[in-house]
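Design job #97: recover the sequence.
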């Protein structure tokens, strides 16, 4: 907001003693010209029947000065308004720029949010797929282990049956061999007993 005490933005073309004039300077100039006009009227010639005699030439000159000061003040006021409008335009442009930047950033954040959601969905899908694959592999491994266990038990039963059969066969073979050996030994002993008995009989004769 422009004020009479403003420095930047309230200075216009024209100077007084080499210094830029402000809006207050122009108002003071206008008031000064009006004050001089008032003094001229009050300090003019003698009063005649309640009326003051005024120097017409000086009065016209002073009126011309006031007339010149008024358009200049109006022009400076217009410059102030134009500068104010420029400030408003700059502020609006800056606000528009900030708004566009904010909208762009919001769009980027929204796009990033969409990408993040897509990544999370893909990660969740991959996680579910891995869990399903792991569950399938686990189930398959358990089935294979159970199948191997059943096959191993079956092979063990077959091996046990075969070993049992072989042991039984070996036992029967051993029994038969022992029986043959003992039979031969018994036969030999019987022969020896007969020889001993015959020898004793001969000794008795």
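Job complete. Output follows.
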């Amino acid at each position: 907001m422009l004020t009479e005490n403003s420095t930047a933005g309230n200075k216009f073309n024209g100077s007084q003693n080499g210094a830029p004039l402000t809006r207050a300077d122009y108002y003071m100039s206008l008031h000064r010209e009006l004050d001089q006009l008032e003094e001229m009227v009050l300090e003019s010639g003698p009063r005649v029947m309640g009326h003051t005699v005024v120097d017409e030439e000086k009065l016209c000159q002073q009126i011309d000065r006031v007339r010149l000061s008024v358009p200049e003040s109006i022009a400076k006021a217009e410059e102030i308004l134009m500068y104010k409008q420029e400030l408003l335009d700059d502020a609006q442009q800056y606000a528009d720029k900030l708004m566009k930047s904010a909208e762009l950033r919001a769009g980027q954040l929204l796009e990033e949010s969409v990408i993040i959601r897509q990544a999370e969905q893909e990660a969740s899908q991959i996680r579910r797929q891995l869990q399903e694959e792991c569950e399938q592999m686990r189930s398959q491994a358990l089935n294979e282990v159970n199948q191997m266990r059943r096959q191993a038990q079956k092979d063990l039963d077959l091996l046990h049956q075969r070993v049992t059969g072989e042991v039984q066969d070996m036992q029967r073979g051993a029994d038969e061999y022992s029986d043959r050996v003992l039979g031969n030994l018994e036969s030999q002993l019987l022969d020896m007993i007969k020889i001993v008995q015959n020898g004793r009989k001969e000794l008795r004769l």
